[in-house]
From TrEMBL, chain A:
It comes from Marininema mesophilum. The chain crosses the membrane at residues 32-52, 114-132, 152-172, 184-204, 210-229. Keywords: Membrane, Transmembrane, Transmembrane helix. The lineage of its organism: Bacteria, Bacillati, Bacillota, Bacilli, Bacillales. This is ABC-2 family transporter protein.
UniProtKB/TrEMBL annotation, chain B:
Pfam families: ABC_tran (PF00005). PROSITE patterns: ABC_TRANSPORTER_1 (PS00211), ABC_TRANSPORTER_2 (PS50893). The keyword DNA repair does not apply. Keywords: ATP-binding, Cell membrane, Membrane, Nucleotide-binding, Translocase, Transport. Belongs to the ABC transporter superfamily. GO terms for molecular function: ATP binding; ATP hydrolysis activity. GO terms for cellular component: plasma membrane. This is ABC-2 type transport system ATP-binding protein. Residues 5-235 form the ABC transporter domain. Its main location: membrane. It is found in: Cell membrane. The keyword DNA damage does not apply.
């Protein structure tokens, strides 16, 4: 457990290091502020427009979480890809840890980052909704919308391990002798994630059914990470 | 002397191409072993198998008496690996880079601080420890990279072409480090395509070409067995190849002629005492080199 914790700690730190290693020129703070302010004005403009129109379907704003699942898949894949981009793959794989531990560390790091980023986005969306509702004079619905958003947030967090696992598996396959299968698997993964998200968002599932799907997705995730480990162990092209 | 590494009939294929075709060699503890061969000969594939990055299709690797295929993870804790490409974080200082790499090998706290101090001294960059690595020359970065592989005090250090693209000063520094590590009892496995490096550093050598070990042994043994003895005659005005007793082959080189022969003494005396029809400005016995060993074994120059 200590080993895994150490790897997770260093992986979390290495996000900054990746930027440092790539040597990319970061944008001056002044411009970040300018662009940030501009984005805020645009978002405020949209919110004001929606508020004046008075026909906003608040619950649908939470659909944003749907996209976050794909983001989780892409980011997870990127975290594996970066070892090849940085030419650290050889060093990474020669570390005194099993491939399973190395991939599990990446898995948890992605999960931690996803939960954090989603939380920030959830809060931002909530403020957005709050503002539009205030303009529309629908303050009484705030609680309902917030609860609905919270439910979806928790549900998507529950599905994110599967999305992350799939992202890791896809990129490991890309670096293995099974590379030709990569585009096919990628499309398949997106379809499966889409179906899962659609089920949660639109189908009238009972709590038990949802829990069942989540449990199955977690079991599948375990298998997916194990498969990725096996491929990285036996069939990686380095 | 105990063997630190025994490699037996390693085979590895990529698609249809056989990268290794039964590579077999052993390395004695506390020695520097050179794996020499041209690009694409199978050096990197062998190194990757040794470090556990890839697995061989067939054959076995026993390192420090342990079967690497069974207990690779534990073994890697006792082995240091310096990859071909520099693996450092540019914006971080040398110290912070080493801290990161040390932690990844499970060295922590005061022990790590002490080790960082020691290795920085070893690589001669103690004064630059707080500077960002991006301000370093290629050779200095390479030295930090080697230091990163030493933090956990490995018993075996594997270096994959560690001097590619670096300045002579850093190269000499790396050579000194390797000699020092050897004195400390570390077993070194050094892959390169520079013959002069192998000559300068290694006790035993294996020459690899097309995925096969074509010769191996002590440097002197190889030179004795495969190197062609020769005499160099420098005579700028001599346009025709000189005739000398016992010459096996004569060919032009620089401003003179290279005469391959087994009769060194007779040939020297011949040129000292005879008139070859031109002024001889230099006459010397050519020191046998690994270059000529490789040439005689493969019929090609190493850097071809």
């Amino acid at each position: 457990m200590t080993t895994l914790r150490l790897l997770i700690k260093n992986e979390l730190r290495s996000k900054t290091r990746h930027r440092e290693r790539s040597g990319s020129t970061s944008m001056p703070k002044k411009w970040i502020t300018i662009y940030g302010a501009l984005a805020l004005v645009i978002v405020a403009g949209i919110a004001t427009y929606l508020g004046i129109q008075g026909e906003t379907k608040f619950k649908e704003i939470w659909y944003f979480n749907w996209g976050m699942l794909f983001w989780a898949t892409a980011r997870a894949g990127k975290s594996v890809q970066k070892e090849w981009d940085n030419e650290t793959a050889g060093w990474w794989l020669s570390l005194p840890y099993s491939r399973g531990t190395l991939l599990t560390a990446k898995f948890f790091v992605n999960l931690i980052r996803w939960v954090k980023t989603s939380a920030v986005i959830y809060i931002a969306l909530f403020i957005f909704i709050l503002y539009v509702m205030a303009l529309e004079g629908k303050g009484s619905e705030i609680f309902d919308v917030l609860v609905k958003g919270g439910q979806w947030y928790v549900l998507f967090i529950s599905l994110s391990p599967f999305a992350i696992g799939v992202g890791i598996l896809n990129w490991v396959i890309r670096k293995s002798m099974f590379r030709p299968m990569f585009p096919l698997l990628w499309i398949l993964s997106l379809i499966v994630i889409n179906i899962l998200a659609w089920l949660f968002l639109t189908a009238s599932l009972t709590g038990g059914e949802m829990l069942g799907i989540i449990a199955v997705s977690w079991i599948v995730t375990l298998g997916v990470v194990r498969l990725a480990t096996h491929i990285l162990d036996q069939h990686a092209v380095l | 002397m105990e063997e630190a590494l025994v490699i037996d009939h390693l085979q590895k294929s990529y698609d249809q191409k056989q990268a290794l075709q039964g590579v077999t060699f052993s390395v004695k503890s506390g020695t520097c072993f050179g794996l020499l061969g041209p690009n694409g000969a199978g050096k990197s594939t062998t190194m990757k198998i040794l470090t556990g990055i890839i697995e061989a299709d067939r054959g076995s690797v026993h390192m420090l008496g342990i079967d690497a295929s069974e207990k690779g993870k534990g073994l890697r804790q006792r082995v240091g690996y310096v990859p071909q490409s520099i693996t450092l974080y540019e914006k971080l200082s040398a110290y912070d880079n080493l801290k990161f790499f040390g932690e990844m090998y499970g060295v922590r706290g005061k022990k790590l601080q002490q080790r960082i101090k020691e290795v920085l001294e070893q690589i001669g960059l103690k004064d630059r420890s707080k500077d960002a690595v991006e301000t370093f020359s290629g050779g200095m970065k390479r030295r930090v990279n080697i230091a990163a592989a030493l933090l956990h005090k490995p018993e075996v250090l594997i270096l994959d072409e560690p001097t590619v693209g670096i300045d002579p000063q850093s190269r000499n520094h790396i050579f000194d480090m390797i000699r020092m590590l050897k004195k400390e009892g570390v077993t070194l496995i050094y892959s390169t395509h520079y013959m002069e490096e192998v000559e300068a550093l290694c006790d035993d050598i294996a020459i690899i070409d097309h995925g096969k070990i074509i010769a191996q042994g002590h440097l002197h043994e190889l030179l004795e067995e495969y190197s062609q003895r020769a005499i160099y005659v420098e005579a700028p005005t001599l346009k025709e190849p000189p005739t000398s007793p016992g010459a096996i082959r004569t060919y032009p080189q620089g401003e003179g002629w290279m005469i391959e022969t087994e009769k060194l003494k007779e040939t020297m005396l011949y040129f000292l005492n005879s008139d070859v029809g031109a002024k001889v400005t230099r006459l010397e016995i050519v020191r046998p080199s690994l270059e000529s060993v490789f040439l005689s074994l493969t019929g090609t120059q190493l850097r071809d």
